[in-house]
Write a structure and sequence with these properties.
221 residues; alpha/beta; Rossmann fold; 8-stranded mixed beta sheet; 33% helix
């Protein structure tokens, strides 16, 4: 069952967070852009209020929260109601798919990743942006999640967890960008993304859909 209640109740608070934390938000967008350039027709899964889809030029989104989806539609996103574990699209529909801090809220990450694999075209790419559970910010969120309406029911994953789950779902050729190298209170300007992971709290993993005969490469930073 999708964890939509806190988002339906606090959708305005969620959307204002990006304005209050502009430097962090813009740093995350910049990191995604580095791996997204020229990918074609895509979808954001867990589009929320459209805060990432809009600046990244993504026209289609899936979102289970009615309130969040309404705001995304007002920003020009074609929002379809649904969940990551049962995407309402046919096989091989998209060139790329994006999730940003979405995987921690899905009920079944393995099933969600299999669905992403299904809706991607051959050699399509999946970009998964997450707060690394092993980072300073990831540990802080985990410690204080009982005080946060959004993260109270979240499951935090490390980048290494994601590699394993993505490979299990049929993805390979991983490329990473990381950013957010300072505590939130010290984030006063956009930070330049670095390759790899292990330093930044926010990591974007770009993974390619593997098909029969494709040679799998674990890391390609």
């Amino acid at each position: 069952m999708a964890k939509t209640e806190p988002f339906d109740k606090n959708y305005r608070r969620y959307d204002r967070w990006f304005e209050k934390n502009e430097a962090l938000y813009e740093s995350e967008i910049a990191a995604v852009k580095e791996l997204l350039s020229g990918q074609g027709y895509g979808i954001e899964i867990g589009v929320g209020t459209g805060r990432f889809a809009k600046p990244l030029g993504i026209r289609v989104g899936v979102e289970p929260s009615i309130r969040m989806g309404q705001i995304a539609r007002s920003r020009g996103i074609d929002v379809v109601g649904g969940v990551a574990e049962a995407l309402p699209f046919g096989d091989c529909s998209f060139d790329f798919a994006l999730m940003v801090t979405t995987v921690c809220f899905v009920d079944d990450a393995d099933r969600a990743f299999r669905e992403v694999h299904r809706v991607l075209k051959p050699d399509g790419c999946f970009l998964n942006g997450l707060i690394d559970a092993e980072s300073s910010l990831g540990r802080l969120y985990a410690q204080k999640r009982a005080l946060n309406p959004f993260y109270a029911q979240a499951t935090f994953y490390s980048v290494r967890n994601m590699f394993s789950k993505l490979e299990k779902a049929g993805f390979g050729d991983f490329t990473c960008r990381q950013t957010v190298f300072r505590p939130l209170q010290d984030m006063n300007k956009i930070q330049i993304a670095k390759t790899g992971y292990g330093e930044g709290s926010f990591v974007v993993i770009r993974a390619l859909k593997q098909t029969n005969g494709t040679i799998r490469t674990r890391h390609k930073f």
